[in-house]
Amino acid sequence: VLGICNGFQVLVKAGVLPDGAEGWSSANRDKPSATLTWNENGRYTARWVRLKVSSSTNVFLRGIDEIDLPIAHAEGRLVARSPEVVTRWEQRGQSALRYIPWSVSDNGRSPAWAANPNGSIANLAGLGDPTGRMLGLMPHPERFLFGTQHPQWTRRPASEFGDGLRIFQNAVRYFQS
Predict the structure, then answer these.
(1) What average pLDDT does the segment 31-58 reach?
(2) Fewer CB atoms inside 10 A, N or C side of the chain?
(3) For 108-159, how does the pLDDT look when each residue is reduced to its tens digit (9 = 90+)?
(4) Nearest in space to 46 (alpha carbons), one of 88, 84, 5
(5) 38-74 burial by CB neighbour count: b if 16+ within 10 A, else e?
(6) What is the pLDDT of residues 48-97, one digit of tens each?
(7) Residues with Cβ < 8 Å from 28, sequence gap 6 or more?
(8) What pLDDT sits at residue 21?
(9) Coil, strand or helix at 149
(10) What pLDDT is attached to residue 28?
(11) Is residue 104 predicted with pLDDT exceeding 80?
């Protein structure tokens, strides 16, 4: 299952993420461990972000270390009920993607919010379930399938395909194996 932006919101609000099938009980739905809410800046934000893959078990992220993707949302801030919830995600490999600062080539001019534009806990941009077969993320991989979709495509090394395509290719490879 892949939930992008509003799809991620649906998976979290429905209780499917972060715990997958093991969290699908009426007791767990009464006290959700996480939700997605308004960005800290209180407004819709659309920009490009740099992401670090922090899960070695998620099938959608195999072979990916860092990727650039666009975001476009007003309610993309992931919050957890407690710090223990985040610790549990870390231990189980569910913390899938994190916002990170751009490279040194940006000359360090990016404001502090640039690395985590919505204020998500632990800089999280995406979560997986414990099996690694589900991924919810706020950034839009479908908006970076081709190299020319990146705003700096004329200044970057030439690439026919964009980083987002790799997530979909991983899904296809998973089902072919």
Answers:
(1) 94
(2) C
(3) 555 555 689 999 999 999 999 999 999 999 999 999 999 999 999 998 888 8
(4) 5
(5) bbeeeeebeebbbbebbbebbbbbbebeebbbbbebe
(6) 999 999 999 999 999 999 999 999 999 999 999 999 999 999 999 999 99
(7) 15, 19
(8) 80
(9) helix
(10) 58
(11) no
HSE-CB at 144 with a 13 A cutoff on CA atoms is 24
* Beta carbons within 8 Å of 20's beta carbon, 6+ residues apart: 129, 130, 131, 134
Does residue 82 come out as left (phi exceeding 0), alpha (psi in the -120 to 50 range) or beta? beta
- Name the pLDDT band for 1 (thresholds 50, 70, 90): very high
| 119 backbone φψ class: left, alpha, beta (φ>0; ψ -120 to 50) | left
State the Cα–Cα distance between residues 29 and 12, nearest whole angstrom: 10
Q: Supply 99's token pair.
A: 């916002």
Q: Please list the active-site residues.
A: 5, 140, 142
Q: Alpha-carbon distance 123 to 103, whole Å?
A: 17
8 exposure class (CB count in 10 Å sphere: 0-12, 13-18, 19+):
buried
Only one residue has tokens 């006290």, namely 31
**Which 3 state secondary structure label does DSSP give 136?**
strand
